[in-house]
Amino acid sequence: MLPRAKEIVDAAEKKMNDSVAFLEEDLKTYRVGKANPTVLNPVLVDYYGTATPIPQVASVTAPDAKTISIQPWEKSMIAKIEKAIIDANLGLTPSNNGEVIRCLVPALTEERRKELIKKARAAGETAKVTVRNARRDGIDLLKKAQKNEGLSEDGEKEGEDELQKLTDRKVKEIDTLIDAKEKDIMTV
């Protein structure tokens, strides 16, 4: 592949990889009936006037399959962290003993499982759209390069073929991630 075409394909591939990585991180935050400390990653707590993710103000662990334990680094943060968890509407009820906050993870209802699957599929579709947009942008750049920068027709065609193969691989990767998450959500 010609250097300019390769450059365009590599840029598109980076966008596609970023989309898949974002989806992976997003799927980790889904509460699926097992204690998973990452569900608290997006929850923000007021830390001296700054909205800060809980893992940056406390140690968050899962000592067993049904409990999330939060050990704030400052005792004054306990009430703020509890309030943030309740406000985040994650279905977790925090309780504390003055030093550690514990959240028991309730089992998921069938209705909640279906909601989570719908949400996961929607996130997967969004990731696919981002991947396809990266392909489209790459093809547009290849056409411009052929027109304005002297890229050969064969070079453009080769770049387009490579972009299509890349898109197919990334869409398949997204489908695999969503299928695995669905399986995880439906496991009782």
Descriptive account of the structure:
The chain contains four helices and six strands; from the N terminus they run H-E-E-E-E-H-E-E-H-H. The chain is an alpha+beta fold. The protein folds into two domains: 3-28 and 109-186, Ribosome-recycling factor (Topoisomerase I, Chain A, domain 4), CATH 1.10.132.20; 37-104, Gyrase A, domain 2 (2-Layer Sandwich). The strands form two sheets. Strands 3-4-6-5 form a four-stranded antiparallel beta sheet, with helices on one face. It is elongated. The chain starts with a helix and ends with a helix.
In CATH terms, what is the architecture of the largest domain?
Orthogonal Bundle
Strand and helix order: HEEEEHEEHH
Fraction of helical residues: 55-70%
Strand order of the largest sheet: 3-4-6-5
Distance between the termini: 49 Å
Category by helix and strand content: alpha+beta
Instruction: Determine the number of helices (DSSP H or I, runs of at least 4 residues).
Output: 4
The CATH homologous superfamily name of the largest domain equals Ribosome-recycling factor
Task: Report mean pLDDT, rounded to a whole number.
Answer: 88
* CATH fold type of the largest domain: Topoisomerase I, Chain A, domain 4
In short:
By secondary structure, the protein is α+β, with helices and mostly antiparallel strands. It has two domains: 104 residues, Topoisomerase I, Chain A, domain 4, CATH 1.10.132; 68 residues, 2-Layer Sandwich (Gyrase A, domain 2), CATH 3.30.1360. The protein has four helices and six strands; from the N terminus they run αββββαββαα.
